[in-house]
Amino acid sequence: MSALLDQAKQVVALAKKKGAADARATAYSSREVELTWRDGKVEKVSEATTRGASVALYVEGRYSSVSTSDLRPEALEKFLEESISMAKTLAKDPYRTLPDPKMYEGRAQLDLALFDPKYETVTADLRRKVAKEIEDGARSVKGAESILSVEAGVSDTKSQSATATSNGFEGEREDTQFWLSGSVSCKDKDGRRPEEYDVMGGHFFSELGSASELGKRASERTIGTLGAAKLKSDVFPLVIENRAGGRMLRNLLGALTGRALQQKQSFLEGKVGKEIASKLLTLTDDPHLAKGLASRLYDTDGFATKKRVVIEKGVLKLFYIDDYYAKKMKVNPTTGMTTNLVLSGGKKNLTELMKDIKNGILVTGFLGGNSNSTTGAFSAGIQGYHIVNGTRAEPIAEMNISGNLSDFWKKLTAVGSDPWVYSSTRTPTLVFDGIQIAGL
Amino acid sequence: MHRRDFLQAGLGASIAVIGCTPPDTIPKPVTAQTPPPVPKAEPPAPTPAKITYFAKFGIDAAMLSQTLTAALSKGGDYADVFIQHKVSRVMALEDGEVNRAYASVELGAGVRVVKGDQTGYAYTEDLTLDALTNAAKTAAAIADGPATPGPQSFRADPGPAGAFPDRYRLVRPWEEVKPAEKLPLLTSLNERTYKVDNRIKKVSLNLSDEYGAVLIADSLGRLVEDLQPMTYLGLSCVAEDKGQRQQNGYAVAGRQGFDFYNDERMGRLVREAVARTTILFEAAQPPAGEMQVVMAAGASGILLHEAMGHGMEADFNRKNISIYSDKIGKPVANSAVTIIDDGTRMGDRGAINVDDEGNVAQKTTLVEKGILATYLHDSISAKHYKLQTTGSGRRESYKFAPLPRMRSTYMANGPSKKEEIIASVKKGIYCSNFTNGQVKIGAGDFTFYVKNGYLIEDGKLTRPITDVNIIGNGPKVLEKVDMVADDLAFDEGGWNCGKDGQSVPVSLGMPTVRVAQITVGGKKA
To answer: How far apart are CA B523 and CA A137, in angstroms?
Structure first.
């Protein structure tokens, strides 16, 4: 048993001793190092090992959830006493109980491959070397003379956490993550200084792609936006680059939570088993993907995770309902947590998908915007390129997309073969038809 | 990493996890013992620093001196220690019951070492001498030379008498407020909300409060402690009418105590939340395209925050990557426009006595009649530009090094009247409430999301609008702000500003203004 699990169990025992009927405690510790490099030298290094604990308290039919980074024994004891007395002032909530331990059962016996045993070999010198490679890559592209500044980021974390409950749950997880980023600012003719970036990351340092290529892509992204202008407002076919698509998907997922459903804030209420999107949309939540950024064996309630189909050929299959809102709505829980979101891919990549489009828009990024989970209305800023006769043409900026998610996802006409793997939302290129865009 | 800084209304944000320490160990706020600031011609004589708040955590001057000496052991130019204790609590109501509470305690220390324009940073949750000096040695590695001496003693700077501001005057500080006192506030608001309109079907409320302190000690021998209260109350409701549902809300926030929640404010909270929700039954997304936009007095300050505020934070300019780099003394806006960023507004969510580098926060005029007057500075950028800091060095917590940040950003009044501005617009929209915004610092493109507003047709407000994003380019839009009214108002909601992964509380203000042309997202024109 690790020291953290031991600590979590001690916190549970202490909470019970101080008057909680039940408790769930998580103890965590994490080492985080971040190097920022700019224009040939280190700009900032931040390095720390951080720790803390959080506890859910079930006291006389009442509930509170607390966390602290002050783990001095007397301070922790007083904190729990105070938190329990705070809980006692609240109204009772019959739906706040620890999950049925049956939900903990069936945890997959898998090595998710989330921990790099070579973590210690990533040294300060190596970080600097990689940062310099990113910058050198960025400055090696055609058009580099317009570059004002290059920033490179190299960061890594090693995180450990352990959770225990008073009804028998125990879980531990450990992962490492490494992230590289390059941001490039260029000077445009009109005085604007656009900055774009590229990023990649994963659990294993040796599996990251080339730092130099990352730098090049960041430069090409920025240089590509020079001279961006808006087009006249119109209805266009829309191609959303794999990296940007997660944003539209998360708008949809906002309406799929148990809370949204129970609080009458989901435009998808009553839609399970019904078509909410084009037949081309099949969305799977896969917690067991090896090396997946959001892979996990148990969720926040302690439920054993499993692969689930969220949307199958456009038909909604489930809501994300955690233990509490399931009890409140008197339905079976699913899980309260999204993990790796996988869109079953098509056969074509971005370039191939653009070929069929005469006059459209390629979205490479969203800016601001929001969506309304109660009605499905959404609106957001976009940037990217005009697509003319099947190829990427001039850059566009300062435009908006608007609509309603229930119409929008029905207009999906193609799904690419190229998922963006540097996010838990692994969207491929997505193509939509007939989307209102605002510009001039 | 990527500079797309954003602003978010606290409403609808996920509930922070929260905590408490025993009330008997919490001292009275220092601010209550400090007289209001008196202007002084002469700098005060150095006052030896006394550690008041953090003494109970075992912090003394000798430890700080040793920590800073370790921080400079590799020859940094400057070092500081930032110690924070923050207790945050949330009580929430859902489905008629106050049946959940959250609490969090943040306790830790960050050590920063500056060498030229390079920064080393490390932090720890363990406030022992060993842990502090280890963090200091880690941060020290940014430099690579012989040790520079650390301070042997500390002076109170700003001094306790006169120079130390007193911007958060609480009648009922949160450490004295028992959880049981907060419950009736929430249950009565819940009942009142249902009574206003029978279409209301769901109400949720979040009351959060924070107390605690920060201590900043630096290698120049300056030491300051500041007690920093904060509170926020948000009301969200769902209404149902003829099978349609709408959700919206209202929030109030400030560096205030329990006394902040008086009848008048609570009445407004309920009224506004219900009105902003039920009007949505008549609302639609407006037509798409460029048009005239009238920004209502109050929260429209989001336009300033995004269109120019971030771009005028000096770090971006020092690095030459802001659209406002090299623009000091030059016109950046219509001559009707004067823009201020102000840390001095009493009890304001964006107010601070001292920033997170220990400097007195100031009222800073960024744009004077269209001319860019100054950037927002922290100590690093101030040194780079050979200027005084504006007291804008802020951080989310001990886990982060400070950065130049906004506080309360607003536009000064102009000569026009609100009615005259609306009447001047033949076809456009009027925007009054917002949920969030974002900006790209270098390109200057920014957006904000409109939750409530109206179409303007032939000089009159007509159909309500909602859920539409507006996008523009900072300098271009500031040039097109061509009418400014005389009705400056501040938004009392709880705004959070994000930059480089750090969130800090800010506020916004604006008189009614007209923007001659900007792109409105929306439906087919």
So the answer is: 43
Q: Is the pLDDT of residue B461 over 90?
A: yes
- Measured between CA atoms, how close is B308 to chain A, in angstroms? 13
Read off the pLDDT of residues B373-403 as tens digits, 9 standing for 90 and up.
999 999 989 998 999 999 999 999 999 999 9
A49 interaction partners in chain B (CB closer than 8 Å): 124
Q: For residue range B434-444, list pLDDT tens digits in order.
A: 999 999 989 89
Which has the closest alpha carbon to B480: B522, B438, B428? B428
Give me the mean pLDDT over the A234-243 stretch. 96
Architecture, CATH, for domain A119-224: 2-Layer Sandwich (3.30)
Decide if B19 and A67 are in contact by the 8 Å CB cutoff: yes
Encoded tokens for A162: 């352990």
Closest partner residue to B123 (CB to CB) among A48, A398, A440 is: A48
pLDDT-derived band at A301 (thresholds 50, 70, 90) equals very high
At residue A191, the pLDDT reads 86
Quote the pTM value.
Answer: 0.92
Q: Give bridge partners of residue A399 from the DSSP assignment.
A: A382
Distances (CA, A) of A432 to A327, A341, A423, B124: 38, 20, 22, 49
Q: Minimal Cα–Cα distance from A216 to chain B, Å? A: 16
CA–CA dist B415, B483 (Å, integer): 8
Every domain of chain A and the residues it spans: 3-30+48-104, 119-224, 234-438
Instruction: Say if the Cβ atoms of B471 and A399 lie within 8 Å.
Output: yes
What would the pLDDT profile of B289-319 be if each residue is shown by its tens digit?
999 999 999 999 999 999 889 999 988 888 8
Segments in B227-345 forming alpha helices (H): 263-278, 302-304, 314-318
For residues B126-150, average pLDDT? 93
Q: Where are the alpha helices (DSSP H) in A18-72?
A: none
List CB contacts (< 8 A) between A378 and chain B: 467
In chain B, pLDDT over 90 holds for what percent of residues? 79
Tell me the torsion sign for CA atoms A111, A112, A113, A119.
Answer: negative
Under a CB-based contact definition with an 8 Å cutoff, are residues B424 and B350 in contact?
no
Q: Which residues pair with B205 in a beta bridge?
A: B93, B235
Cβ–Cβ of B119/A45 closer than 8 Å?
A: yes
Chain B residues with CB-CB distance to A398 below 8 A: 445, 471-473, 519
Distance from B110 to chain A by nearest Cα, in Å?
Answer: 9
Give me the percent of chain A exceeding a pLDDT of 70. Answer: 100
Q: Which of A55, A70, A81 has the most B C-beta neighbours within 10 Å, making it the best mutation to test the interface with B? A: A70
What residue of B is the nearest CA neighbor of A154? B1
pLDDT given for residue B45 in this prediction: 61
What's the half-sphere exposure (Cβ side, CA atoms, 13 Å) at B127?
24
ipTM above 0.85, yes or no: yes
Which residues in chain A have their CB less than 8 angstroms from residue B20's CB?
79, 82-83, 86
Identify which of A44, A96, A149 has the shortest CB distance to residue B121: A44
The reply to whether A119-224 shares the fold of A3-30+48-104 is: yes
Beta carbons of B97 and A91 less than 8 Å apart:
yes
Query: Residue B249 and residue B261: Cα distance in Å, rounded?
Result: 17
CATH number of A3-30+48-104: 3.30.2290.10
What pLDDT shows up at residue B419? Answer: 97
**Ordered domains of chain B (ranges, CATH):** 12-279 (3.30.2290.10), 289-520 (no CATH)
Query: Would the CB atoms of A181 and B1 count as touching at under 8 Å?
Result: yes
**Per-residue pLDDT tens digits for B105-125:** 999 999 999 998 899 999 999
Alpha carbon of A318: minimum distance to chain B alpha carbons (Å): 22
In the Cβ-directed half-sphere of A376, how many Cα atoms lie within 13 Å? Answer: 14
Q: Please give, rounded to a whole number of angstroms, the shortest distance from the CA of B74 to a CA of chain A.
A: 15
Which residues in A lie closer than 8 A to residue B444 (C-beta atoms)? Answer: 192
